[in-house]
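Model: Ready when you are.
Researcher: Fold this.
Model:
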Amino acid sequence: MSLAMCREELTEYMAQIFPQVIQDFVIEDLSEETIVMRLVVREHHLRPGGTVSGPSMFGLADICVYAMILARKGRQSLAVTTNSSLDFLRKPEGGRDLVAHCRLLKLGRNLAVGDVLMFSDGSDKPVARATMTYSIPPEGSAAAAFG
């Protein structure tokens, strides 16, 4: 399946639908198979001890998979998270952005499953791994008409 939106179109659309958080996330690369997103780590993402908080890491994984679904399905898709699993592998390096590499394992008519590896910027050792499952509303439904 080809992309329904390029990186620039997806960035613009995400700014429209998520204006409250778009400043935190940057789409660095997008292909038919993968998306690479950056969490621009700021003080509100940190927990005591200077490490990136779990909720911030979850947010990166969640928006990464959602953005990949939008890139493939287009603006009509209002997918919702139905399941998630997040493994914390090592402490993120303090003060560094997180970079997430996401690929969709399945993009069906009703469900999408994505896998996300997160790294401290500049490191090749993952700090976390997430698997996210989304429910995709039927096309033509009121929920799918968002955007």
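Researcher: Now this one.
Model:
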Amino acid sequence: MSRTLKIYLGILILLLAGIAAIEFSTPVPINWQRSYNETHKIPYGTFVFYEELENLFPDSKIQNVTVTPYEYFDDYYSWEDSTYLTTGTFMVIDDYPELDNTSAQELLDFASFGNDIFISSNYFPDKLLDSLEFSISNDYTFQGKAELTFTNPTFKSDSITIEKGLSNIYFSEIDTLYTTVLGHQKFSNETYINFIKTSWGDGHFYIHLQPIAFTNYHLLKKSNQKYASSVMSYLSDDTIYFDSRNKMEKKLGNSPLRFLFSQPALRWAWYLALITTLLFMIFNAKRKQRIVRVKEPLKNTTVDFTKTIGNLYYETKDHDNLIEKKITYFLEYIRRIYYLDTQILDDKFVKNLALKSGKDNSDTKKLINQIVYLKAKTNCNEGDLLRLNNAIEDFYTT
């Protein structure tokens, strides 16, 4: 190992040690991303809620749904008797869940057979809005905290006040014939509906507009867990199909270096190693690369010669000579490529040429007739030359 390389490695080790020392001495910043991921322990993850589902539903099985609702429940649908082979409650908690109209229709079908759907969100596909006949609005004037309450007097003591991460969404219209109001949210002096139950077939939809209430930050604050517990008490004690934020395609698409990139210190160490390696290769190659003498390739003068001869004939207006040479070269091409006798250019020759070349019979006949005509004609003009040239070029390229 050369002395220069030892210096480079020493500098690199010192840099890595310095970066690691700085990173480990710096407090880890709080990640306030609203992931609603059941595996995340960040403030707005749902790790605590997901872990408590077994206590909230002790007689129920918790089943993660790692694909879309359509993909999941369509596999349980029996086309023979038009029923579902499973029962339970589908649950999704997210500001903007991955629910398209196809999955929304699947959830409507699943609910119609006596199952429950719980959605805590700020966004709903048009299929749900139209079918369940409710509308949501946004109170852009809202600022500060909000009080979340229940209409059932039994849960009066389970009301909570939230100050962080609130949304301004509320129900502006509901179908009062099939819908029951379960909860409200109070902004300043205004009270809005934020939790409803609506019937669909033999089942029910429970729609909640404050998913932030089920995140780690709020469940671990004071006694806020009582609110989530009261909301869950409306659901039947059956299998819980929890819509996971860790979809199958996302797992497959993660990089093998995902752990390195998830740790700031390791991520910057990786980038620094790549940069220094690249710089070392560049400078090392620059020092040892020998001068390569540039050799000019031999110039192909065939094209230039052909152009010169062509221009000579064209400028002398010797069209007969050019036409003769074009025909001679073309017939020689036919003999060489298709092995046809070109002495007699009759219908039999045209048919054989069309078959062997794969060209249209009528186009081939026009070209051969044009050649026969020009061979017999004297004093050909520039138009004859251009038409012949175009016809032959079309034969070559078409």
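Researcher: Key takeaway?
Model: The chain has three domains: 3-28+258-288, 47-253, 302-397.
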